[in-house]
Amino acid sequence: MRTKLRPSQLLAILPVLPILVVSWLVAGCGGKANRPPASTTSDPPPPATTTVPQQTMPEGDVIAEDRDELIAMDGGDPLGIRALELVDINLRQPLADVPFGYDSAVLSADGRSTLDGHADTLKTYGTMTILIEGHCDERGTVEYNLALGERRANAVYNYLVSLGINASRLKTITYGKEFPFDPGHNEIAWTRNRRGHFEITPK
Amino acid sequence: MKHLLRASIVMGVVFVALTTFHGNTRSAGVIQEQAIAQPSGGEWYFNITDPGRAVRMAIPEFEIGTADATDASQKISSVVWNDMEFASIYRLVPKRNYGMAQTSADPRKIDFYQWESVGADILIKGVTEIQRETLITEVRIYAILAQEMVFGKRYEGPVTAARRMAHRIADDILIQAGNYKGINQTKLAFSSDRRGGRSKEIYIMDYDGFSQKPLTANHSLNLTPTWSPDGRTLAYISYRTGTPSLHLAHIYEGRGELFDTGSGMAINPSWSPDGRRIAFTSTRDGNSELYLIDADGTGLKRLTHHPGIDTSPCWSPTGLEIAFTSDRTGAPQIYAMDTEGLNLRRISYQGSYNDSPSWSPSRRYSELAYTSRIERGPFDIVVYDFQTKQTRQLTTGRGSNEGPDWSPNGLHLVFTSSRGGSDQIYTMNRDGSNQRRLTSDGNNKTAQWGPITGGDS
Question: Which one, of B167, B184, B183, lies nearest residue B362 by Cα?
Fold first, then answer.
């Protein structure tokens, strides 16, 4: 069972997204550097041989909540690039959820803007493959919500493809209302639970 | 469509052996029965003096024939009582009223006048004993006014089969005393997260909530089981391959398999009344559409052609029509069509969100139950009557009530309610009365009522 992060924690880890992704990419390739083209990003990742935490972990309070865990994970490894497991990377939600309205699979302006950012990330890390999960709030039936979640995942998929992301890097799945992000029974929880969610998948 | 013709791939689904389901269906565990001769073969009746009055039934505690049968006898008495209470066909005369009527020197001798004075129209007498490791119960039905025994049967089975024997007795009482097709030997299939983690497994239980047993154990997401009409196989959604797809569980063989429907996800299966076909939702052509496929995996046929969501198929009892959910007008509503996808018509006009239709199998009532959201309120179970075109609401406002499915005699419904804080399975009568909770462990939902299969066989 995964621990759920509070929104404050999610915000706090945004700055470390590049670290997480890079460290995973590095490890995923057995130590061989698999850097994305530097020209596609204004914030190029460090070389693979760099000790990641020392070089790129920003100073300040914003990362404090994650420091213990990152240090603990790197402990004893001189290179400091013993990677985070994929599950740990996904736990940090490197690609933010995309919200949906009640009984709707239409992307909002905010949702499209979030996906524009995800498309950039996907272009930066050109080998990253993702699973797009369609989720619904608890209202409504199991059966219909499975279909609605599929349609939400598909809306996200189609938009990313329209932005030039190769369809072969994207998979979709619906979870209907089976895995709410927020277990509450109120508008706040429902708003959080109507979402397109992203998991980075093994290549 | 060619790739659909290949045989379904046998998957290594881990099945929990349903030994008690199956173990009793062979010679060692079978319940045998034998008629007890009726004193007279003539016409009989229970209550003709006041046709409007409910027929009243007395069921005194079954006699204990041998001392070692005490527990079994009490259990059979209590299960039969509970079954008759659930059936809601007869008014049960409270046991505290029996007094004089059952204090006879010879328990086999029926004091009809005493039973008439306590208000009984029908008397059920039973005696249970154990002989040579065999549980034996004799049951007799008496018509009080006619002063005669109208039915008698002797049941023999394993000592561990008291509960099953009782359900069988209750079904016999219902058919003999009132020509009602009882559902006391039926089972419910549902999905439960009680094992913890993110898994939801398929479970089976008796109609009264007893004998809950897991069927799948694949640690994945398993939902919406649908029964084959012979009660031996379930089709359900499983995520075990990574994509929501249809799977079959051969309950009594302990074997499961992926049911290959081609590309795209496949969800929400519904088995046709003749067992030959399964209706389901697939995205193989781009968005959620309804399809039919033969039970052997061949003959795929597309039924709907609409960019909206078409899902949640259920069969009419004749097998000639299919009710389903579509949001083609903007919000999910119930529709019906024939099995060619023609003669499409909208059924639900009330409610802002309607889904999970279940067509009553009853020949007496022509009705369709579904989940309805009344404006912006909670979700409740409603029933649409095809004759009057009226809709009646069976649950009201306590939590979310959804996913109705009819009992095979059309007199009861099983559904899911969150009224107690978690999703649990309940049953009720077709007028919404007699609501009972059956589950309490974890969250339980998408229950489907299994067929009447005639008990052992």
Answer: B183
Do B210 and B151 lie in one domain? The reply is no
Size of interface A-B (CB pairs under 8 A): 83
Distance between A1 CA and the closest CA of chain B, angstroms: 5
- Pairing mode, if any, of strands A129-135 and A170-176? parallel
Last residue of a domain, one of B144, B178, B212: B178
Q: Are B131 and B43 members of one domain?
A: yes
Q: Is the same domain home to B112 and B191?
A: no
Q: How wide is the angle at C-alpha B427 spanned by C-alphas B423 and B429, nearest 5°?
A: 145
Which residue does chain A place closest to B378, by CA atoms? A139
- One pLDDT digit (tens) per residue for chain B, 457 residues: 333 333 333 333 344 434 334 433 344 578 888 887 655 544 445 544 566 678 899 999 999 999 999 999 999 999 999 999 999 999 999 999 998 777 665 666 888 999 999 999 999 999 999 999 999 999 999 999 888 898 899 999 999 999 999 999 999 999 988 778 999 999 999 999 999 889 999 999 999 999 999 999 999 999 999 999 999 999 999 999 999 999 999 999 888 999 999 999 999 999 999 999 999 999 999 899 999 999 999 999 999 999 999 999 999 999 999 999 999 999 999 999 999 999 999 999 998 999 999 999 998 899 999 999 987 788 999 999 999 999 999 999 789 999 999 999 999 999 999 999 999 999 999 999 999 999 999 999 999 999 998 644 3
Residues comprising chain B, all counted: 457
Question: Is B455 contained in some domain?
Answer: no
Q: Which residue in B has a C-alpha nearest to residue A102's C-alpha?
A: B331
Residue B8 shares a structural domain with residue B148: no
CB contact under 8 A, A144 and B403: no
Residues in chain B with CB shorter than 8 Å from the CB of A158 are none
Short-list B302, B303, B324, B301, CA closest to B313:
B324
- Option in A144, A178, A179 nearest B355 (CB): A144
Tell me the shortest Cα–Cα distance from B372 to chain A, in angstroms.
9
Q: What is the CATH number of the domain that holds B444?
A: 2.120.10.30
Domain that holds residue B53: 31-178
A105 min Cα distance to partner chain B (Å)? 11
Is residue B26 one of the residues assigned to a domain?
no
CB–CB contact B312 A143 (8 Å) = yes
Closest Cα in chain B, distance from residue A141 (Å): 7
Among A103, A150, A151, the residue with its CB nearest the CB of B353 is A103
CA angle A19, A23, A27 (to 5 degrees): 175
Q: What is the rounded (10 degree) CA torsion for B430, B292, B295, B257?
A: -90
How many structural domains are present in chain B?
A: 2
Q: Do B225 and B119 share a structural domain?
A: no
Q: Which CATH number belongs to the domain containing residue B92 in this structure?
A: 3.40.50.10070
Same domain, B143 and B204: no
B238 touches B248 (CB < 8 A): no
Nearest to A147 among B288, B373, B446 (CB): B288
Do B225 and B286 lie in one domain? The reply is: yes
DSSP A100: -
The pTM of this model reads 0.83
Instruction: Spell out the domains of chain A, with CATH numbers in brackets.
Output: 7-91 (no CATH), 98-201 (3.30.1330.60)
Going by C-beta distance under 8 Å and a sequence separation of 6 or more, which residues neighbour residue B115? B58, B101, B123, B142, B144
Query: B444-449 and B245-250: which strand pairing?
Result: unpaired
Tell me if B242 is assigned to some domain.
yes
Does the residue B25 lie in any domain? no
**Rounded to an integer, what distance in angstroms lies between the CA atom of residue B239 and that of residue B400?**
25
B223 in the same domain as B172 = no
> Final residue of a domain: which of B178, B195, B210?
B178
